[in-house]
Amino acid sequence: MDKGQIVDTRRAHAECPVTAVQSEYHIMWREPETSIFPTSKELGIGFVPYSPLNRGFLGGDINEYSQFDPAHDTRQTLPRFTPENLRKNYRVVEALHRFGRTRGMTAAQVALAWLLAKGDFIVPIPGTTKFSHMEENFRAADFTVAEADWQALEAEIDAIGIAGDRYPADEQAQVEKR
Ligand SMILES: NC(=O)c1ccc[n+]([C@@H]2O[C@H](COP(=O)([O-])OP(=O)(O)OC[C@H]3O[C@@H](n4cnc5c(N)ncnc54)[C@H](OP(=O)(O)O)[C@@H]3O)[C@@H](O)[C@H]2O)c1
After folding, report:
1. Among 3.40.50.970, 3.40.710.10, 3.20.20.100, 3.40.50.620, what is the CATH number of 9-165?
2. Where is the NADP-dependent oxidoreductase domain (predicted)?
3. Contact residues for 78 (Cβ-Cβ < 8 A; gap 6+)
4. 136 lines ligand 1 (CB under 6 A)
5. 117-154 residue pLDDT tens
6. Model-level pTM?
7. Half-sphere exposure in the Cβ direction for 40 (13 Å, CA)
8. In the chain, what are the domain boundaries?
């Protein structure tokens, strides 16, 4: 629900019932909680978080030394994926690892289980090229974590802070908001 698409869910839903809205959402980008969730809940519209692992970063396999294919990988253009910001933001991944260690969860599973715990109307679409990751990601739905524990994790990540914007300034200017 961005980049020049229709942004008024309520108006769209009145014209033709909307089944689901798709937008970026993960523990490092929580804007949909205020911009989309209230309308989704009120009107019974599903929410599909894309890039729920922050384009792979929350899986823990990407760091400041990662190389992105200059011809095909758009992450190299995103402020959060500069080597300096990857190094700073890796503290978020370390927090997910710490959280998961005592619960038998990988960092990716913590990221996905956190997101699933936000509501039944949420259906994330993590991308992968590996069956092992697909199975790992599916199993995120098997974990139950107390709401207070999720809140503690959110507080820890809030305290860390996120380095780098979602998009470069020229692209961000094209993102419509409701
Ligand atoms: N509507 C839109 O504007 C929009 C924008 C962006 C994306 N999308 C869609 O959203 C979906 C997912 O987005 P995305 O691929 O950008 O981001 P993502 O799901 O956040 O991350 C995908 C990356 O995570 C890695 N990964 C997956 N599972 C992992 C695990 N368990 N441990 C470690 N790494 C793991 C994958 O690498 P491996 O291949 O090595 O597993 C891949 O590089 C796609 O269907 C995409 O088309 C939509």
Report:
1. 3.20.20.100
2. 10-155
3. 55, 164, 166, 167, 168
4. yes
5. 999 999 999 999 999 999 999 999 999 999 999 999 99
6. 0.94
7. 23
8. 9-165
